[in-house]
Design goal:
The chain is α/β, with parallel strands linked by helices. The protein has one domain: P-loop containing nucleotide triphosphate hydrolases (Rossmann fold, 3-Layer(aba) Sandwich), CATH 3.40.50.300. Helices cover 46% and strands 10% of the residues. The protein has 17 helices and nine strands. Strand 8 and strand 9 form a beta hairpin. Helix 2 (17-35) packs across helix 3, helix 9 runs parallel beside helix 17 (321-335) and helix 12 crosses helix 14. The longest helix has 19 residues, at 17-35. The chain is globular. Bound molecules: 3'-phosphate-adenosine-5'-diphosphate. The site of 3'-phosphate-adenosine-5'-diphosphate has 22 residues, from helix 4, helix 8 and helix 15. 3'-phosphate-adenosine-5'-diphosphate binds at residues 82, 84-90, 176, 180, 183-184, 277-279, 282, 306-310, 314. Belongs to the sulfotransferase 1 family. It comes from Platanthera zijinensis. This is Sulfotransferase.
Length: 351
């Protein structure tokens, strides 16, 4: 299912019959728990389940629950957290290249693999009954996640614990996130019947019924934590990454414990990283134009679907002024007094 190079070894650790039995029982138990949760027809025909205030794609919720129970953190772990369609692909590429720079092999992997195949979302590791052994992953373990902060394993969030992990969160302006989600959901829907209209998408999104949504609560949980513990949670914005990619790469590198050296500053490493991970570069690679991968829900996804326009403010091409106002009203309401703000919130000019 995964083409991640370390995934096979994560599932090779021998288990006793008793351990296998325990895993099978836990799997059954969690599936029952999920089947009793509120359900929604969801986006792209994948049912959504409401768990502790967030809507999860049903096939992945099992992974979130298992991750919470079974994950064993290491102090060097770095989580890359996003709400879907906020720039995960870009963040994964940047983190991977920043972390692996200096060693030619891994860095060039980004040219032949989709960033999602450099390391998949961690909850997807846990969707099978068999619990993976992540000790097989090289250190530092980079792990992407869409899981809301409050639902990450306690061990990851426990600031008293020596294993408390670092987290980089990338957030995106909600209207652009909505438009990107809409295109992606319809792109993977597989049939005309399961496509949704933009009006339906706006309605669902504003009610919080979007994958891993409500998007505002998702952003605010990480935002609050980044303000409380800036040494452990780095909060980035897609729009800032677009405007000042080099400054953001430096910030990421420092946070990840691999600061850009004076030598690298002199030899143009930062610009090289930005160029290698740019939308233009990645979307033009053969693997991302014609490749296909399986996602966490078990669907075949064209890699090209992860690269649509990569622009700030594309919502203007897709949302009516009324739709934009509706999303902005929710954004203003939810973000009021939190210190978090987004660009492009003014009502668009009416004809
Ligand atoms: P995912 O949650 O399915 O992984 P994610 O990567 O978070 O999706 O978001 C996809 C968006 O990031 C797309 O935005 P769009 O629909 O508005 O175009 C995609 O184009 C954009 N994107 C992907 N790679 C890059 C990149 N290298 N630079 C900027 N934007 C990118």
């Amino acid at each position: 299912m995964f083409s991640h190079p370390y995934i096979a070894s994560c599932f090779e650790t021998p288990k006793t019959e008793a351990e296998k039995y325990e895993e099978a029982v836990a799997y059954q138990h969690r599936r029952e728990e999920i089947s009793n949760l509120p359900v929604d027809s969801g986006w792209g025909n994948i049912p959504g389940r409401l768990y502790k205030g967030f809507w999860f794609p049903e096939p992945i919720l099992y992974g979130v629950l298992s991750l919470r129970r079974n994950f064993r953190p290491a102090p060097s772990d770095i989580f890359l957290a996003t709400c879907p369609k906020s720039g995960t692909t870009w963040l994964k590429a940047l983190a991977f290249v920043i972390c692996s720079r200096g060693s030619n092999g891994p860095q060039s992997m980004i040219l032949s693999r989709n960033p999602h195949d450099c390391y998949p979302n961690i909850e997807n590791f846990y969707i099978k009954p068999q619990v993976p052994d992540l000790d097989a992953m090289p250190s530092p373990r980079l792990m992407a996640t869409h899981t809301p902060y409050s639902l990450l394993p306690e061990s990851v969030r426990d600031e008293e614990s020596p294993s408390c992990c670092r987290i980089i969160y990338l957030c995106r302006e909600p209207k652009d996130t909505l438009v990107s989600t809409y295109h992606f959901a319809n792109g993977i829907s597989g049939s005309d019947e399961s496509m949704i209209s933009m009006a339906e998408a706006v309605e669902l999104f504003c009610k919080g019924h979007s994958p891993y949504g409500p998007v505002w609560e998702h952003q605010l949980e990480y935002w609050a934590e980044s303000r409380r513990r800036p040494d452990k949670v780095l909060f980035l914005k897609y729009e800032d990454l677009k405007a000042e990619p080099e400054a953001n790469v430096r910030m990421m590198a420092r946070f990840m414990g691999r600061p850009i050296t004076a030598e690298e500053e002199a030899d143009g490493t930062v610009a090289e990283i930005v160029g290698l991970c740019s939308f233009e570069k990645l979307s033009g690679l053969e693997v991302n134009r014609v490749g296909v991968r399986m996602n966490g829900s078990g669907r075949a996804i064209k890699n090209s679907l992860h690269f649509r326009k990569g622009k700030v403010g594309d919502w203007r091409e897709h949302l009516s002024p009324e739709m934009a106002d509706k999303v902005d009203a929710v954004t203003r309401d939810k973000l009021n007094g939190t210190g978090l703000s987004h660009c492009n919130l003014e009502p668009p000019a009416r004809p």
